[in-house]
Amino acid sequence: MTKKNYYLTVFLIVLFSIHSWGQGDGYIIKEGNRMFPIGSYYLPNDDNMLRELVDAGFNIVRCSSKETLDRAQSAGLMGWLPLSLQSGATDEFKKKVDALVGHPALALWEGPDEVVWWFTGEWNLHYKKKIHEKPGSWWEQEEGAINYAEEKSASYIPNINEAISYIRSVDTLNRQVWINEAAASDTKYIRQYLDNIDITGCDKYPIMQLGESDPYEEMHRYCNSKYTIMQQPSPKNGDVRKNVDDIKFYTRRFLEVGRGKPVYMVLQAFSWPELGGDYWSSLLPVYPSFMESRYMAYIAIATGAKGIYYWGANYTKSEEFRQSIYAVTRELSALQPFLVSPEEKHVNIRGIKTLPEVKSDFSSIARRYGRDWLIVVINETDDYQMSVVVENMKHLNGMKFYDLYGKDEFVVSNEEMVFRMKPREIKVLATSKRWKSKETKGRDYAGR
Fold it and tell me: What would the pLDDT profile of 224-238 be if each residue is shown by its tens digit?
């Protein structure tokens, strides 16, 4: 080997040892089977509550140690492990990874939560830490805020990439690496670590209601996060508050920010005042209704999410609300085989307008598992839809679809089905009733 070729070989070895490109599809593996993750950040200490979590269809929980992974495994759950990737591949980091990499319940590695947000747009950079001169310093791109972000990113990003490279070097099962961000985290910095992770995504908890005084008014204005519906009353008669539209927007945003990488959406399992503190305690206590939680989960999946997780259940004081979340997860769990099946993109859903002022916006899921089919249609509008057409249902003429959570049955004719929908209604249509969750507890929760 010539000296030139020797140095080229060394360079390539170093290059590929530094980079560890993420290639995962977002699904988790349990006993050799791919599963759509339905996750809980909360691992209950009480065994009965843990059993209830499993019975509700959750399949993965956040763990912190061998003991918690053992407990998850004994309950039949997989676990994910959060790691301080931003500190780099320190001796302490390597020791923790080495100790847990062989655990059979470990399904995912997770990086630091909302890592980019904490050095860019997080409001406590002004209110508590006084690093930003005023609320909105980041959103106005003031020099001090930019300099602070550049300083932190110059340390954090290389450390994140280094730590992930170490994980890749010792994890023979090639588990996926996920970093959850805040919904408005900065694209530039996310993309500096993006190639090294498998899964991106964000958390969004849109159901809240401000009191008369909002001490973070400036932050809300700059963040564009003062939801249009915040001052509206609690839902009535099954109404769905428009805040839920945020979930579709941010799922789409992270599909774009992540250049098509798998996206996990972390959804709301708490009421904001339950977080405590002077500000949060001043808010009016509101919870998503069952219909709102269900809407948020389905719209995320229909938009492209590869996993649904719930944060905040450890704060939740309302048992009725908790059971409504479990009703959603049971429904999703019953559809597991479809949730890991590819989308049948030829199936199309559209509305034929009856009145010119009626909006006609839909999202949908069309999946096949063996000979069974699942069609989910989501009416995204506050209007009644009198002519909803599911078309291009090739080779399905004569096949019967059951509305799993309604009374309707539809038979495909002329390669289509036609029906009507209520505002914000979700129709879950399947070719067999066996895909229905039989438990009804929590489905009548009206929210607050």
Answer: 444 333 444 455 556
| Tokens at 98, concatenated | 């080495």
Return d(Cα 370, Cα 396) in angstroms, integer: 14
The CA-to-CA distance between both ends of the chain, in Å, stands at 73
What Rg value do the Cα atoms of the chain yield, rounded?
23
- Which residues belong to CATH 3.20.20.80 in the chain? 3-339
Q: Cβ–Cβ contacts within 10 Å for residue 314, how many?
A: 14
The residues of the chain that CATH labels 2.60.40.1180 are 348-434
348-434: CATH topology is Immunoglobulin-like (2.60.40)
Burial of 136 (0-12, 13-18, 19+ CB in 10 A): buried
State residue 227's pLDDT score.
36
CA–CA dist 443, 406 (Å, integer): 13
3-339 adopts what CATH topology? TIM Barrel (3.20.20)
What is the distance between the alpha carbons of residues 266 and 272, in angstroms, rounded to a whole number? Answer: 15
Q: Which of 412, 410, 403 is nearest to 436 (CA)?
A: 403
Give the list of residues 6+ apart from residue 441 with CB closer than 8 angstroms, or none. Answer: 323, 326, 327
Residue-level pLDDT at 78: 98
**What is the number of other CB atoms lying within 10 angstroms of the CB of residue 179?**
29
Q: How far apart are the C-alpha atoms of 268 and 203, rounded to whole Å?
A: 8
Which pLDDT score is estimated for 2? 53
**Packing angle, helices 290-303 and 245-257, rounded to 10:** 30
Distance between CA 41 and CA 263 in Å, rounded? Answer: 17
Report whether 381 contacts 360 (CB < 8 A). Answer: yes
pTM confidence score = 0.91
Residue 399, C-beta contacts closer than 8 angstroms, at least 6 positions apart: 373, 393, 411, 412, 431
Greater confidence, 402 or 19? 402
What phi, psi does 104 have (nearest 5°)? -65, -20
